Amino acid sequence: MDRLPREATLAGCVVLTNREGAANFDKDVPLPKEFKFSSFDIGEIYAMLKDCCCDSKKYEEYVKKMQPYRDWILGQEHRMRICIDKLIEEIVSKRSLGKAACHLSQSTVTPSY
Fold first, then answer.
1. Cβ neighbours of residue 22 closer than 8 Å, sequence gap 6 or more
2. Per-residue pLDDT tens for 86-112?
3. Residue 40 and residue 42: Cα distance in Å, rounded?
4. Which residue(s) pair with 37 in the sheet?
5. In this predicted structure, what is the pLDDT of residue 105?
6. Is residue 58's pLDDT more than 60?
7. How far apart are CA 69 and CA 11, in angstroms?
């Protein structure tokens, strides 16, 4: 489930997540590794939360590190449109080739009586 991290980072929050499910894969949730926890280490998580809540410079640093993730999220619609355009182009191209092949085969066949 990556909807909550997406919404949080777009709202300017620092996102912390585990490495389970989709969050484990950088292609699915491309957060810097320091914000993904492989184990439920309370000490590590507490230290990160303390930095975010008590140290404004650290918080700003972490927010900046979220920018590539925000950019990736914001670019998804554009990338999806490109994929859809390519798919439609491929379907139309194959359909046109199929019609051309059909016309060629019909015109080259000579009936034998």
1. 1, 2, 28, 29
2. 999 998 888 877 665 555 555 555 555
3. 6
4. 18
5. 55
6. yes
7. 12
Q: Is 52 exposed, middle or buried (0-12, 13-18, 19+ CB in 10 A)?
A: middle
Amino acid at 103: H
pLDDT at residue 60 tops 90: yes
Distance between CA atoms of residues 31 and 66, nearest Å:
7
Q: In a 10 Å sphere around its CB, with 0-12 CB exposed, 13-18 middle and 19+ buried, how is residue 83 labelled? A: exposed
User: Could you tell me the pTM of the whole model?
Assistant: 0.68
Enter the tokens of residue 109.
């066949």
Number of residues assigned to the chain: 113
DSSP strands (E only) in 54-110: none
Q: Look up residue 18 and give its amino acid.
A: N
